[in-house]
Amino acid sequence: MKLHSIALAAALCLAALPPSTAQAADAATAAKPGAAASAQVWDLSQLYASDAAWESERQALAAELPRLRALEGTLGSSAKALLAGMDQMSALRRRLSRWAIYASLKADENTQITENQARRQLASTLGNQYGEATSFVNAEIAAIGRAKVEAFIAAEPSLAKHRQSLTTMLRMAEHTLSPKEEALLAGAAEALEQPQQIYTLLTNADLPWPKLEIRGKTVVLDQEQYAAHRSDPDPAVRKQVFDAFWPVYKAYERTIGAVYAANLRGTVFNARARKFSSSVAMAQADYNIPEAVYRTLVQEANAGLPTLHRYLKLRSKVLGLPQAGYQDMYVPLAKPAGTSYTQAEAEALTLAALKPLGEPYVKQLGDAFKQRWMHSLPQRGKRSGAYMNGSAYDVHPYLLMSFNGDYNSVSTFAHEWGHAMHTVFSNSQPYENSGYSTFIAEIPSTANELLLSDYMVEHAKSREEKLFALSQQLENLRTTFFRQAMFAEFELASHEAAEKGQPITGEGLSKLYLDLLKRYHGHEQGVVKIDDLFGIEWAYIPHFYRDFYVYQYATCVSAAAFFAEGLAKGDTALRERYFAMLKAGNSADPYPLTVAAGLDLASPAPYRALVRRMNRVMDQLEALLAEKR
């Protein structure tokens, strides 16, 4: 039985205080001019008032663990005994999730503070101790058997909230080991998590970032500044940024390769120990997702490469590039009059774009913006990327990103708040069913992005703004569908290599990734030139340490395109089905929930529909470009 929500949030502590003067100065240089003016810092005091309160709860939680171990052998004695045991474990898991999020959020807001990292380790240790203390549960439920468990549920109505969890345990019985073996695997969990922890600290806190002079200003080219400057309109600056940034990762190719190889071998070890046919089969089993979903996605992404190449050629034409390089992939094709946004402007745009979701949704979202749920202020040492952590069921979701004022920040803002509102809706379920699979999690977030993009197209005030909005929608489809599918193919190939016992080295991983980069970007056809150095990009992707996670961005954008189109047309019946899916939380397996909403993500149809959408948007863009000015 997994620790509720913590695995989902892991993305996606000291008392929360405003940033120091030095941090504020760093933030001012990290963000575009004016972008940080309305950025936020989250309020973690709503979780715990002080470090002392957090430490007190740690000790209290640790004291409860022996009581969980005492439940072993009692669950099958009666329906009431099963309910009492499940409730006891659930109540402690609920407290533990809230406690762990405090440590996780503080560690991420500044990875350079040792005390924060120590708290994260304590949280990981206690979470694994909880796993050890409850490691008998799956085997015990399997031994009780389906008939008796179902009879208990029928006899004790209060067990209904545990039905999905119990059903999953029964379904996973063939992959459940003896209690002693389960305890052994639970005890190994902390050691197997170390590759991700090592990678996070190495790449966020310890890599030696170079300094660059960009337009007369000195920039420390860390991950945040790379993301901020890789879209620079000047091709020379883009090349300068890529030429300075990627050699840092290349210098650590062997080390990061060894770290990722350890992660792969840990995954393969777990899959074999639990008698799964493959690592991908194990990853799909928890939420009962057909393996055909993963493999169909990869197949259809490759079938759609001519559409991707059409878009990449169009980019080169619009940008006036005789030969596009990989360093040109992030520069926008067009810019509206105002290219820098404050967070307040991002909030207003998001609320306007999401009106198709209905007035109650928009009002609820607007009210949430006024709370301190988000840490969006850029600062040194902050974890890169963006996520929503919904582990604190009794408080509210927390969101992390660095708002730097460009359109991508606005889009990311809308995306992460889609996650947050999903959590708010799913929390209408009892705690035991309030979590949800990533298989559905990325649908509302990506739907928000598409609705925002459609809004920007529709409300463009000039030809230039419309060009920008159309190009942003195309870029969203490129990065969320094709790029994530490429990542998925890399993960599948690297795990299969580990399963075959092949050597896993940084150099080998770079070659594998480089071959994919070249195929997806049409290197051999002269579409985009891919320098060999950029094969190291795999080392930049933290999501690879969450095995078989990223493919769901691609499946979800396909589902999101379906919902966004219907919602924009005012289809109220579709909107009801959409919210029903979000409110269902983890009360049912995710694949049947999407099928009930009208989508079969194991078939080619959704992916082909997305490719058709991309071609339609390109038709619009080309027609606009052909108009006489």
TrEMBL record:
Keywords, alphabetical: Hydrolase, Metal-binding, Metalloprotease, Protease, Signal, Zinc
Record-linked Pfam families? Peptidase_M3, Peptidase_M3_N
Enzyme Commission code(s) on record: 3.4.24.-
Keyword Transcription regulation applies:
no
- UniProt remark on cofactor binding: Binds 1 zinc ion.
Q: Which InterPro entries match?
A: OligopepF_N_dom, OligoPept_F_C, Pept_M3A_M3B, Pept_M3A_M3B_dom, Peptidase_M3B
Q: Please report the stretch or stretches of sequence annotated as the Oligopeptidase F N-terminal domain.
A: 140-207
**Cofactor(s) the protein needs:** Zn(2+)
Start and end of every Peptidase M3A/M3B catalytic domain? 230-607
Task: Please state the span of the N-terminal signal peptide per the UniProt entry.
Answer: 1-24
Family, according to the entry, reads as follows: Belongs to the peptidase M3B family.
Role of this protein: Has oligopeptidase activity and degrades a variety of small bioactive peptides.
Protein name according to UniProt: Oligopeptidase F
Species for this entry = Roseateles aquae
Gene expressing this chain: pepF
